[in-house]
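Before relying on records like the one below, remember that each one covers exactly one chain. Contacts with other chains, cofactors or solvent are not represented anywhere in the record.
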Amino acid sequence: MKKTLLLTLLALAGCTTVPSELTLTEGEAWTSRKDYADFEITGEARTGDGAEAILRFCQADGREGYGVVLRNGSIDGTVHDEISGEPFLFGVQGEGRRWTKTFSQEALGIFEYLFTDAMTIVDHKGRLSRIYRSEEVFFDGISTQAYMDHLVDQTVLILTNEPADIYANPTFLPDALQGDYDRLWTPERVDRILDVLEKYHIALEINPRYRIPSFDIIRRAKERGIKFTFGTNNVDSRFGRLEYAQEAVEACGLTPDDIWFPSMSIRSSRPVVIYNHFD
């Protein structure tokens, strides 16, 4: 049986941690909610950071396992064999908006979890826009409110049509809008996102790198019974220790009952919908 493992994932690169008492056997309790001595971590194998490198990092830092996140089209026997013999979860990121055409249902079936985000959208003029890159964010004279409405529309479309287990980097905004996060994420907009998470049993990631979503949104999600994961979207080997997630656990009263486990996935019952019709 696998050792105690992570159960939460992130976005462009994963770093996921939970107290060691939470296991894939769905351990019943945190013996102490303040005991974060051992962390579970999900790391993305980027250039120079393969499974061996991340395992060494986990062992050196007193951690017990990770999940390697693979890029689109990178499923092959070599990678699978490398991971299958280790105490790791095998997951996939739905990167960009073309992944539903890239992966077959058969290929997706080998993964224990799938996560995606809304950091790449089709903007109001039909352009693919990576909103984490300022040079790809265009307002073209539309108001901030109109842009936000479109971003929410896109997020709902993504989560409705792409069968993800986890909504990563949730409520992320482009640089130009981040200063108005609380004003722009109105209760009505938040409800639209939470509605789709609740409907499709999608977990909400708590992301320490960006310190999102807000505690208010986390509390509202908890009230609906939405489950949570923790993840950083790391860009290198500096994973951190999920400080914001730890703060959220304390501030929002999260318990093991609020945490998502792979056994909760309903992804296999959802179709992959080709909804953008790219050339």
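The CA atoms of residues 248 and 254 lie 7 Å apart.
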